[in-house]
Here is the input.
Amino acid sequence: MARIVVDVMLKPEILDPQGKAIANELPRIGLKNFTDVRQGKRFELTVDGEVTEELLAQAREAAAELLSNPVIEDVINVEALED
Amino acid sequence: MARIVVDVMLKPEILDPQGKAIANELPRIGLKNFTDVRQGKRFELTVDGEVTEELLAQAREAAAELLSNPVIEDVINVEALED
Here is the structure.
């Protein structure tokens, strides 16, 4: 059993109100060194056995077809998860 | 300018209906090799200058205080993002 991680973020030009709300709140708890926050999604896909190149290709397909909205999001990372 | 990434996942014992819905949908688009899917959150925190140990400590504090709900979520990763 192994896992593949897929990271999806809003495209840079898309507004991120959740991230903005967090960025605004951080100074209120004393954390003043962060100039921006963006919130995205992380998926962990479990597979039987080892992560093969074919499974990574299937994960990239899942990322493009089901895990992201290509109009507003970028799949920024698909890789085997080190346990 | 640099970024710190924070990954937050539901605790393993917490049900993840969104992940389950995705796992159920994958075979319908021909992807039958994934036995489970979990959906979590990825945050990117921007800082001025380089990522220092102090900024990483502040990011860990932000992760614990604001970016996660410790009752149901685990902060699984806080690290400088390689550009």
